[in-house]
């Protein structure tokens, strides 16, 4: 049985891959991992969508994830949680858990980027398989050190 840890989206970064394409890197961390997070490469459209869901960018029209949330809510359902489950053939897998109006829980296979894009919009909890911790990397590799030093006077 897979054990999950409560996780968080530590950061979403934009970068250029080895082919010159704009991509994103989602850093998913868990308290148990300290200053480490699992980096997951995602597409530029999903990067934009997650940043919009976080309120970091504005976009004049609804994106696909906005539409999906509107449909879910119009049907009386809600995103209960999302899980990042495994790494299979160099591809991360995720599951979206949706509770319908009758209280029945439905699960949907998803890309982690789509699952996180939904979770950030509705403030749903994110969980990650504990076993994925072996892929966690030091955050200093991705994030600059905090600016300014606190000094004692």
From TrEMBL:
Q: Where is the BFN domain?
A: 4-140
Named from the GO MF annotations, one term is: nuclease activity
Q: Which InterPro entries match?
A: BFN_sf (IPR036104), Bi_nuclease_dom (IPR003729)
Give the signal sequence positions. Answer: none
Task: Note the superkingdom of the native organism.
Answer: Archaea
What is the recorded name of this protein?
BFN domain-containing protein
Q: Which organism is it from?
A: Pyrobaculum neutrophilum (strain DSM 2338 / JCM 9278 / NBRC 100436 / V24Sta)
Give the source lineage, highest ranks first: Archaea, Thermoproteota, Thermoprotei, Thermoproteales, Thermoproteaceae
């Amino acid at each position: 049985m897979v054990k999950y840890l409560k996780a968080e989206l530590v950061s979403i970064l934009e970068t250029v891959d080895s082919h010159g394409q704009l991509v994103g890197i989602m850093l998913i961390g868990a308290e148990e991992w300290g200053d480490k997070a699992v980096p997951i490469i995602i597409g530029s459209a999903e990067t934009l969508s997650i940043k919009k869901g976080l309120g970091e960018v504005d976009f004049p029209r609804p994106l696909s994830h906005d539409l999906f949330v509107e449909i879910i809510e119009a049907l009386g359902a809600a995103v209960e949680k999302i899980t990042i489950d495994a790494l299979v053939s160099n591809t991360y897998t995720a599951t979206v858990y949706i509770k319908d109006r009758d209280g029945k829980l439905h699960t949907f296979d998803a890309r982690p980027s789509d699952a996180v894009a939904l979770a950030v919009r509705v403030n749903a909890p994110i969980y990650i398989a504990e076993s994925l911790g072996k892929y966690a990397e030091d955050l200093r590799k991705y994030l600059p050190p905090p600016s300014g030093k606190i000094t004692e006077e």
